[in-house]
């Protein structure tokens, strides 16, 4: 049985197949390949996009979805996470999708259940379906051609970002050059990648910018003067972008005028909503793979 706890759980060949299937699902009518399948979602952390995207993906393929309302579950009565998982597993779902504030929870849970576990984001560790939808959006933008040699700047709170972690692993595997751009307090210690604190020094050479949200909920103390100062140096504004032909991505939620300004969010180079749309097809493809090949 296969789980998806991080992008390394998938071989490059498997990822090619997931991307190809998502492309097919996006362009053609699809059958109810997951009819009679049951998927449970448990989100211990808030989500707008990932939870609804997985649920829409499952329903589009004909699966039934049960979403555990964590605030009303017996977790609030002291039931452990592992007992919660074991009890849900006893209902014989075909997959469990989990988000948790602590890194490593989906991986540990995968040892306690008899169905695939899909990580919908764990702490600052990994967000594999987000990275796969980002890769798909980049691949689609470049007309499904090779991405070898394309340059992407990942900008923002990289140190606390599970999206950055998963994208760094995946995008470098597909031949992209990743440049990390952030103030010193948001820069990871080691990565082996090119790093700069100066966004304007690399903007002329990149094909893609992935802006990230400042993960204030993961900061134990505020290590920067203000978000306004941060925005001055790192906000993707129309002035900063000029007329450059750069694909602009953001996993959401966007802090308007801190991560990306209002004008750039309206600009056709900004594909934030395209990412959301593609996320459904990628998650349909992931669900088919993990459930039908379990
Ligand atoms: N990109 C993402 O994980 O968004 P949500 O937190 O809304 O799921």
What is the CATH class name of the largest domain?
Alpha Beta
Distance between the termini: 5 Å
**Percent of residues in beta strands?**
5-15%
CATH topology of the largest domain: Rossmann fold
- DSSP helix count? 10
User: Strand order across the biggest sheet?
Assistant: 7-6-5-8-9
Number of strand segments: 9
Per CATH, the superfamily of the largest domain is Aspartate/ornithine carbamoyltransferase
State the CATH architecture of the largest domain: 3-Layer(aba) Sandwich
Cofactors and ligands present? phosphoric acid mono(formamide)ester
SSE order, one letter for each helix or strand: HEHEHEHEHEHEEEHHEHH
Give an account of the 3D structure:
The structure is a single chain. The protein is of the alpha/beta class and 294 residues long. It has two domains: 7-127 and 276-292, Rossmann fold (3-Layer(aba) Sandwich), CATH 3.40.50.1370; 129-275, Rossmann fold (3-Layer(aba) Sandwich). 36% of the residues lie in helices and 15% in strands. The protein has ten helices and nine strands. The protein has helices spanning 12-27, 49-60, 81-89, 105-109, 128-141, 162-173, 227-234, 238-241, 262-266, 272-292; strands at residues 38-43, 64-68, 95-100, 117-122, 151-155, 177-181, 194-196, 208-211, 247-249. The strands form two sheets. It has a five-stranded parallel beta sheet with strand order 7-6-5-8-9, with helices on one face. The longest helix has 21 residues, at 272-292. The protein is globular, with a radius of gyration of 19 Å.
């Amino acid at each position: 049985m296969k789980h998806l706890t991080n992008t390394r759980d998938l071989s490059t060949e498997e990822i090619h197949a997931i991307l190809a299937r998502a492309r097919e699902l996006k362009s053609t009518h699809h059958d109810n390949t997951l009819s009679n399948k049951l998927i449970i979602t448990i989100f211990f952390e808030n989500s707008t996009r990932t939870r609804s995207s997985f649920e829409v993906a499952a329903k589009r393929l004909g699966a039934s979805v049960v979403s555990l309302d964590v605030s009303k579950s017996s977790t609030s009565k002291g039931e452990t996470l592992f007992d919660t998982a074991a009890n849900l597993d006893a209902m014989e779902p075909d997959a469990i999708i989990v988000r948790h504030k602590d890194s490593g929870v989906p991986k540990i849970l995968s040892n306690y259940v008899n169905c695939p576990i899909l990580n919908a984001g764990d702490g600052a560790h990994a967000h594999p379906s987000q990275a796969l939808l980002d890769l798909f959006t980049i691949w689609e933008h470049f007309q499904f051609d090779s991405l070898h040699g394309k340059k992407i700047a990942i900008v923002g709170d990289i140190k606390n970002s599970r999206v950055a972690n998963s994208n760094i692993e995946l995008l470098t595997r597909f031949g992209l050059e990743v440049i990390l751009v952030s103030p010193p307090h948001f820069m990871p210690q080691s990565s082996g990648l090119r790093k700069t604190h100066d966004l304007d020094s690399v903007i002329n050479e990149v094909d893609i910018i992935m802006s990230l949200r400042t993960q204030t909920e993961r900061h134990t103390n505020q290590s920067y003067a203000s978000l306004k100062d941060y925005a001055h140096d790192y906000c993707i504004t129309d002035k900063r972008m000029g007329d450059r032909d750069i694909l602009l991505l953001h996993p959401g939620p966007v802090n308007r005028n801190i991560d990306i300004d209002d004008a750039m969010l309206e600009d056709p180079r900004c594909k934030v909503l395209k990412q959301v749309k593609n996320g459904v097809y990628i998650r349909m493809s992931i669900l088919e793979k993990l459930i039908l090949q379990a």
